[in-house]
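quick one before i forget lol
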Amino acid sequence: MKRAGISVRAVAVLAIILPALVLAHHSRSNFDHDTVLEFHGVITEYSWHNPHAFTTLAVTDDAGETKELLLELNSISVLMRQGWTRDTLKVGDEVTVFANPDHDSGKNLYYSNYFVFPDGQMIASAGGGTPESIPRAPQRQVDQTASSDDFSGMWVVEGGFSGRRGGNQPGAAAPRRNAVSLGGQVQAVGLPLTAKGQAELDAWDVERNPFFRCESKTPPAITTPLGAHKIIRESDERIVFRHEILDVERIIHMDVSEHAAGIEPSHLGHSIGWFEGETLVIDTALFAPATWGIGSGVSSSDKKHLVERFTLNEDGNRIQHEYTIEDPVYLSKPVSLSQTLMLDSNYPWQDEYGCDPEASSRHIVD
């Protein structure tokens, strides 16, 4: 097995042990998960930033020429769950890396699955599907006894896939065939689009993703499977939604019954709320136009209108989140979708996400 360059044999060996590993992150669709390459070299840079860390590796080929490879790692929260710290790698470290190449063979970009150090120690960049010999942080357990009686608490999207007709199924990794999907970081599918909306979707380009500029999604997609979401009952007058990714705070005004004139349109819109029995209803309007404000590849206009319904189950540990989006500029008719939120009271919340614009777009290389 060649140590200085690409090992073809590694593909056959690691394809067996890494299927879950290489598919573990939602935004890795640009990588060829069926090809696993082995590189041996020296760390020349280690960048510890959200939304994902990077390292560069100097490798020497059989002809004696040295090349630097750009290796993408996971987000800091995921890396920490795998046992990483900002000191796990250092410039000058000699390592062996198993990685997936980008689908575009012209890009000098690879997704790092795991690293092997000279003493044989290994550590994963992604989660799941790793060999038993890789050091793993203790698996964090969700407190199944925790409950909420007023929606307050820390919530995560159950099943890991949002914006799908019929809600999420626990453990689901992809939308059902012919389902409506807002897309996440892959192209939205199944939306009823106007000619303008369809033209924009046809021109879909992942590099236009606002997240690559550290810009947040708009509601409802802001309640993403990435990270967690705090619901805070501050008072009878307002409820606060805090979203871990990009440090976004959304205010729900419970003391007004309409969107008053003179309110400036904004990225998150203006939200008013009320209770219908045990269901929290949130009406959001006055959105500013936003790139991909409907879904991946479909923007939204100032005509966008959103109605959400949050219903807490009897055990107080699940919320059914149902919503309807209207936008006559991009949608030919309203779209209704749902997802389930799960209470996760001991989730390791990042108080400051600190998105770095350079790290966010660094994977977009020529």
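fyi Residues 153-343 form one domain.
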